[in-house]
Amino acid sequence: METGSWIVIGIIAALIVWMVGIFNNLVSLRNQVKNAWRQIDVQLKRRHDLIPNLVEVVKDYMSYEKETLEKVIQARNGAVNAQGPEQAIAAEGILTGALGKLFALMENYPDLKANENVSRLMEELSGTENKIAFARQFYNDSVMGMNNAVESFPSNIIANMFAFKHATYFEVPEGETATPTANLR
User: How far is CA 157 from its chain centroid?
Assistant: First the structure.
């Protein structure tokens, strides 16, 4: 074989190794996004499990606020039944809004604020909300890495060849950006 043939073979081999490297990076980024979403799922499951307990404890105190409690449960059920990140993001926004209204109403019930069970549930829910916030941040960081790779040259060529798609950011819906607060002390 001539030297020119070896050079061509070397270039082709380098090109193949380069393409495999980019492909493997895209697979790794896609799996990181999936893992990050699963971490959010774990925290959302915990949140969804806490909400019925909270509603059960407060419903005796808040008999006049039945509509709000029903909206919280409906929003929770919608979030539990959401399929995929896009639906879950929208459903969680609705749930966050319903919880915010519940927390605001709870401020008007002094006996409720003093209840130890409510206090404990609120602490657990608050801790879970913090974990969800961190999981969302990690997820969005992972999405940014994936989307950068899908859009950037030359990895966008490989991404298009193998149908890698943009991932969806976990965004808080407009009007839901204020964090609900509950002062039960």
Answer: 29
Longest Cα–Cα distance in the chain: 91
pLDDT tens-place string over residues 102-145 = 888 887 777 776 778 888 888 888 899 899 999 999 999 999 99
CA distance to 48, 115, 164, per residue, from 58 (Å): 16, 9, 47
Rg (alpha carbons) of the chain, rounded to whole number: 24
Count: domains in the chain:
1
Query: Which tokens belong to 9?
Result: 């073979």
Task: Give 162's DSSP letter.
Answer: T
Cα(184)–Cα(149) distance, rounded to whole angstroms? 46
> Which DSSP letter does residue 167 get?
P
Structure confidence at residue 53 (pLDDT): 86
pTM listed for this prediction: 0.77
Check which CATH number belongs to the domain holding 67 and give it. 1.20.1440.20
